[in-house]
């Protein structure tokens, strides 16, 4: 029976229950704990580049402030081109050889990018190290998104996405507060100059990436959800991302990825940069200005963390497409509200950053829950690879245009652009809801193993 004809979603009781989350058979608690650690560290560590880049630009390379917005946008473009090339390859490999090794390797390569980053002597060299970081980022985040689809049963997908998102948020908050906000001024107070501060912090992040790579390599489940005899041929895996786009809800997932991943990157890069440049313009030292940029980013991330509790507790009860409509509406409001902010460091701007965080995490939740639910088991990593590639294209467009808008019109402009994109995807989701709504998830049905 296809998903469209189900009215209730059964629970396979041969899988274990981890808190409120029903897991598919053969997933152990140890696997879930390893996933939770990965969710806690991966996203937090990848967002450090948003703090690290202003540090490098202002300390080791001394890039003029007027050029930093555009250069930051170009760095993101290089990152996304590299990710676009890696996502599809990693997705196909993951459906053949498994998720674990690729995830571990990705974290370590991302760490190497961080290790080299502050030792760049020129802008071209900085781009090389950013691409190394991007390759590791693509492998690790691609596998994180695949695992969140692998481990839960359908009835618990929203809760699993919320759990992962909350752990992502905790990791982001930890990195923003302790590494981005507190460590730079502490090292400066200890007598280190700006260049030394930047390099020490990047070495610390490299070590954290390496530890995470070891934990993931030891703790996640081996292999793929498909048995060897079930695995599709290479050609089918390579084409599956395109072919599965015939499903309107998977096509909608690709559209949500286009804006949802842009949301996260725009939030991280331009919010931190906005706060940092505002601090420098107000006469703050570079380390203190970077600390202020990290502070407002942490404010938005904290609001996102709390809002995930609401989404996780409620959204498994509703049609997935309806959830996307709601999430994209909230995201459009949150991003557009930045037009009301004049000084990002002023206390009165805080409520708008809270709304921004709520909007960003709503887009993430709607996109991730939809693709987690719709991606087929046998080609899941390949389809999620296409989902991530769509996100990379979105980031290429929004970051490139956003950097130009940042320099020309101020810090709020990139956020307004993303707000418009979120509104457009909301309208697309309304069309899909009318023409191909799918089914309404329910926790009411509990059946014996194997009942469909």
Low-confidence stretches: 1-8, 442-452
CATH topology: Growth Hormone, Chain: A
Number of helices in the DSSP assignment: 13
Largest sheet: 2 strands, antiparallel
State which percent range the strand residues make up: under 5%
Question: Structural class of the helix and strand makeup?
Answer: mainly alpha
Strand order of the largest sheet: 1-2
**What's the helix-strand series?**
EEHHHHHHHHHHHHH
The CATH homologous superfamily is termed: MFS general substrate transporter like domains
- Mean pLDDT, to the nearest integer, reads 86
> What's the structural domain tally?
1
> In whole angstroms, how far apart are the ends?
7 Å
Query: How large is the radius of gyration?
Result: 21 Å
Q: Which outline best applies?
A: globular
CATH uppermost class? Mainly Alpha
In percent, how helical is the residue content? over 70%
Structure summary, number of beta strands? 2
Level-2 CATH architecture: Up-down Bundle
Q: What is the compact description of this entry?
A:
It is globular and about 60 Å long.
Write the layout of secondary structure elements.
Elements: E1 17-18, E2 21-22, H1 29-58, H2 65-97, H3 100-116, H4 123-150, H5 157-189, H6 194-219, H7 234-243, H8 248-281, H9 286-314, H10 320-336, H11 350-374, H12 380-409, H13 413-435
Helix pairs in contact: 1-4, 1-5, 1-6, 1-8, 1-9, 2-4, 2-8, 2-12, 3-4, 3-6, 4-11, 4-12, 5-6, 5-9, 5-11, 7-12, 8-9, 8-11, 8-12, 8-13, 9-11, 10-11, 10-13, 12-13
């Amino acid at each position: 029976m296809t998903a469209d004809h189900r009215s209730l979603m059964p629970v396979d009781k041969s899988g274990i229950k981890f808190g409120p989350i029903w897991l598919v058979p053969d997933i152990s608690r140890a696997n879930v704990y390893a996933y939770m650690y990965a969710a806690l560290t991966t996203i937090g560590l990848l967002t450090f580049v948003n703090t690290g880049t202003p540090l490098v630009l202002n300390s080791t390379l001394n890039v003029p402030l007027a050029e930093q917005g555009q250069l930051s946008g170009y760095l993101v473009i290089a990152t996304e081109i590299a990710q676009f090339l890696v996502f599809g390859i990693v997705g196909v490999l993951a459906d053949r050889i498994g998720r674990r090794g690729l995830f571990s390797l990705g974290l370590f390569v991302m760490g190497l990018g961080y290790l080299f980053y502050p030792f760049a002597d020129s802008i071209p060299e900085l781009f090389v190290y950013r691409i190394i970081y991007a390759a590791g980022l693509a492998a690790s985040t691609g596998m994180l998104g695949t695992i969140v689809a692998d481990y839960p049963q359908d009835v618990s997908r929203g809760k699993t996405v919320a759990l992962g998102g909350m752990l992502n948020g905790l990791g982001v908050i930890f990195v923003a507060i302790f590494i981005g906000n507190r460590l730079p001024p502490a090292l400066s107070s200890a007598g280190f100059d700006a260049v030394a501060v930047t390099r020490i912090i990047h070495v610390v992040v490299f070590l954290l990436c390496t530890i995470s790579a070891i934990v993931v390599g030891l703790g996640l489940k081996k292999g793929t959800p498909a048995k060897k005899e079930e695995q599709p041929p290479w050609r089918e895996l390579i084409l599956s991302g395109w072919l599965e786009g015939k499903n309107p809800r998977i096509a909608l997932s690709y559209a949500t990825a286009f804006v949802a991943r842009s949301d996260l990157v725009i939030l991280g890069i331009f919010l931190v940069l906005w706060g940092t440049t505002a601090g420098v313009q107000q006469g703050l030292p570079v380390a203190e200005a970077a600390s202020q940029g990290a502070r407002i980013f942490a404010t938005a991330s904290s609001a996102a963390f709390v809002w995930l509790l609401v989404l996780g507790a409620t959204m498994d009860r509703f049609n997935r497409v309806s959830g996307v409509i709601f999430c994209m509406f909230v995201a459009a409001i949150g991003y557009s509200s930045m037009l009301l902010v004049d000084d990002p460091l002023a206390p009165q701007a805080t409520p708008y950053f809270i709304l921004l965080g709520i909007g960003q995490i709503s887009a993430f939740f709607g996109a991730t829950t939809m693709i987690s639910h719709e991606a087929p088991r046998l080609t899941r990593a390949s389809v999620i690879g296409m989902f991530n590639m769509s996100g990379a294209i979105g980031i290429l467009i929004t970051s490139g245009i956003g950097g130009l808008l940042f320099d020309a019109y101020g810090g709020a402009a990139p956020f307004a652009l993303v707000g418009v994109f979120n509104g457009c995807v909301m309208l697309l989701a309304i069309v899909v809801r009318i023409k191909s709504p799918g089914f309404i998830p329910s926790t009411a049905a509990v059946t014996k193993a194997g009942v469909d």
